[in-house]
# Entry
Amino acid sequence: MKNILLPILCTLFFTACITKEKFVDTFDRGKDWAELQTQLPPYPQADNLLEFNVGPTSTHRYFVDASSIKVENDGVIRYSLVVKSAQGAENASFEGIRCETREKKRYALGRNDRTWVQPRVSEWELLENVSQDYAQRELAKYYFCPRGLIVGSSEEAIRALKAGAHPNALR
# Structure
């Protein structure tokens, strides 16, 4: 009897597992995140640059073009970043930070003729996984996404940059 009962129970168990409906949470169903199309800002001007600190290990100086900062409805803060080396070299990029997921994306790179060009790779990357992006991590942590929340406006982001950190940021 035991030899017959075990296969029957196994068959019933597997049948129940196969026919069981998959649970679908309908509360957030259909609410996928969609990134907005973005317009490239004018190339950064020296008069609009706000310097920020990325820590004692960097020999470069980092700036955000205040006129380029946009806090968008898709939860992305877009801005132009300018990096100046101690030798005088200058690099510009137009980037975005998504506070909710702690990701960054590079939309454009600056050229010597002060125009933008599309980078070879323009995908969302986790800030923690990219070792050379000190500036983006600092911007997210202390200026644009204090305690994981997104600033409410470009004016709030500019005030944080001018003050050296957002008032809600933990230093």
